[in-house]
Each structure stands twice: as C-alpha cells, then as structure tokens.
Amino acid sequence: MASAILTTEKLCKTFSNDGLQQHVLKNIDMEITTGEFTVIMGPSGAGKSTLLYALSGMDKPTLGKIIFDGRDISQLSTDGLAVFRRKNCGFVFQQIYLMDTMSLMDNVLAAGLLVNKNKKELARRAVSLFDQTGLAREQWSKFPSQVSGGEAQRAGIVRALINDPAILFADEPTGSLNSAAGTSVLDILSEVNRKGRSVVMVTHDVRSALRGDRIVYLKDGALRGECKFEKYTGDDARRNETLLAFLKDMGW
C-alpha cells in the first residue's frame, strides 16, 4: 500500500480586502499518496488554485498544517519554502512563464542550476527529458516565441522535471492549448505518473480530469467529495460516465 507523501490538517486560507475577510479554504483535510494522480475540480472561485499553491509551498496557509514526507512545511520561512520548492516540487502552469530571451534548453538548464551545479549532468538529464516528451531536437535551441504553445508547454514540463521533484503540480496545464496539443501534454503527464511520480492537477476540463486516479471536488473552499479510478490506460466510456455522474452529484 502506497504511503502518504503529503497531508493537510485543518488547512485554512483567509484573505483580507478592505477590512473584510474572505475564507477561501476551510478546514481542508486531505492526503496524497506516493505515485497518485490527484485532480482537483470545482466551480470557478472554489479555491482550487489557492489549494494547489498552499500544497506546493507557493503560499502559506492562514491556519493548519501541511505535512510533506513527515515535515511540517507550513512552519518554514519564505526562504525555507523557496528551497523546499526547488528541491521537491515541479510546476506546470497554464501560462508557461518561459524566459523569452533564453532558448528552451537554456530555460530548463537555468532551473536545474538552482539545485545542481553539475552542468554536464544537467545537460544529460535535460536531453533525456526532452526526448521523452517527443519534442524535436531542432526545437530545443529555439526561443519560446519561435515554437507553438504545445511545444512550449512540453519544454515547461521538462523544466518542471529537471530537478527530479517528488511531486509535479499542474494548474490548468492545457487551458491555453488546442485539443491536439492538450492531449499531447496530458499524455506526458500520464506517463510521468505511470513512472511513479505523484501528480496534482487543477482543471475544469472533464477530458483532462479523466487522467486522474482520484478526483477531489472543492466548493466554497471546502472538500465536498471524491471519486476514485484505476490508472488511466486510454479512453474509457465507463470512466467518463462515472466521472460525469460524480460531477453531477457534486452540483457541477
């Protein structure tokens, strides 16, 4: 049985705006096991991205604990969280955030050098990861503006994986891509997960959510339910029907 790599205890996040408090996350108790593909769904404004940022150490909770591999990261300083993220977390966003003045390869290597100063080792790992994404080698030396959105997102995934993170966090990774490019990105994420890496993905897209082996539903800042599947192996009508029924029950 897989062990928990990440757990939360009574996780809360509150924002203040003109003296008014907005409770975005409310007493979130959840567990993510090693090698799990967890999908976070919910209506707009439910707190999905806020939860993802809290889980990954990008934002500190107002109350509660986030335990990563036995360590309470919610108590870390800002600098401590930055070190934690670089060593343990990879990030894939809807907006890819590659440096426009650097090639795809140099974007990846720059992220790797924050943790590993061995350039030759990093270059070998980058080549291997790029090959795994299926991105043609002639594209690696191009700038982000010279490639398609799907190709840039593949480079974004390589950058997220270059430091061999324990968990890959993805926030609407296909949101700005066409259907074909989005499917390619989802295939890569599924393969990353099949190789044993934990993936946590926020999405509003049912097609993307089908890749998860657990879907948790967030509404008004609270967890309302979850749906579990076996590992994704391809399009499955029954899987789709089960997920749609679950979402309907949640009020989707």
Describe the protein.
The structure is a single chain. This protein has a single domain, classed as P-loop containing nucleotide triphosphate hydrolases (Rossmann fold, 3-Layer(aba) Sandwich), CATH 3.40.50. The protein is built from 8 helices and 10 strands. The chain has a 6-stranded mixed β-sheet, with helices on both faces. The model has no long low-confidence stretch (mean pLDDT 94). 36% of the residues lie in helices and 27% in strands. The chain is globular and about 45 Å long. Helix 3 crosses helix 4, helix 4 packs across helix 5 and helix 5 packs parallel to helix 6. The longest helix has 16 residues. It is α/β, with parallel strands linked by helices. Helix 6 links the parallel strand 7 and strand 8.
Q: Can you count the helices?
A: 8
Q: Please estimate the helix content.
A: 25-40%
Q: What characterizes the major β-sheet?
A: 6 strands, mixed
The whole-number mean of residue pLDDT values reads: 94
Portion in strands: 25-35%
- CATH C-level class is Alpha Beta
Give a count of the beta strands, DSSP E runs of length 2 or more.
10
CATH architecture: 3-Layer(aba) Sandwich
Order of helices and strands: EEEHEEHEHHHEHEHEEH
Q: Which class of secondary structure composition applies to the elements?
A: alpha/beta
Spans with pLDDT under 50 lasting ≥5 residues?
A: none
Main sheet strand line-up: 6-7-8-3-9-10
Shape: globular
**Count of spatially separate domains:** 1
Task: Tell me the name of the CATH homologous superfamily.
Answer: P-loop containing nucleotide triphosphate hydrolases
Separation of termini? 32 Å
What is the CATH fold-level name?
Answer: Rossmann fold
- Rounded to the nearest angstrom, the radius of gyration is 18 Å
